Amino acid sequence: MLQELMNNFYFTEKEAKVYLAALKLGRSRVSDIAKSAELNRITTYEVLKRLLQMGVAHSAVYSGVKTFVVVAPSLLVEKMQSRLQVAQQILPRLALLNRANSNKPSIAFFEGADGLRTIYEGTLACQDKVILNIANPQNLLATIGHDFFTQYVRKRAKRKIQVKVLLPDTPENKKFKSEEKKSKREIKLFDAQKYPLPNEVLIYDNKVAMLSFASLIGVVVEDKDIVQSLRSMWQMVWDAV
Description:
Layout lengths: L1 H8 L3 H13 L2 E2 H8 L3 H14 L2 E6 L2 E6 L2 H28 L5 E6 H11 L7 E5 L2 H8 L1 H13 L3 E7 L2 H8 L6 E6 L9 E5 L2 E6 L4 E6 L1 H17 L1
Parallel strand pairs: 5-6, 6-7
Antiparallel strand pairs: 1-3, 2-3, 4-10, 5-8, 8-9, 9-10
């Protein structure tokens, strides 16, 4: 659980393992940190070099042996706060650039479970406050993880973003439907046998995201006309169910 929180907070999975191992050990050799992190020595050394570049680790040579130590957790919080302040300062300029290119079609590709999580995180910026969704929750949860999805739902609800979801009619999804109000979801079920659906589609603003859980790839298309067509098709299905 602690490592998962660290992943969301600041680090990649391996960076979190190495940071936590070094934090527990104090100043240590690469081999000791690698053993504690359950990674090989070469990988651990490469991760430590990244932590040095990030300013969250320091190295020193003692008795001819290179050792590493990481900064205290409180300093990580300070670094995140500093990053947030910088982001807030440049946000107005970035928004201007985004508006200047908002009418240009674009396609973005994402790979791996982290890539699919990134797509989901991106929907939290939904300006229309409504996401149209065709989903298979069991495949989704098996890929991005229950903890991540629970946090995502909380963030989405806090931002008052409503989701209208088409789900296969299964016992598991009927449970989702029974919880729809507290999660700011509106759910309709369709025949799972007649219409098999292994993947997922998210439609929001002028974007459509398509996620393949078997291939662990995702595509986000931003184009007003394409999205309007898919939005209309989604609505036809919704009205017919």
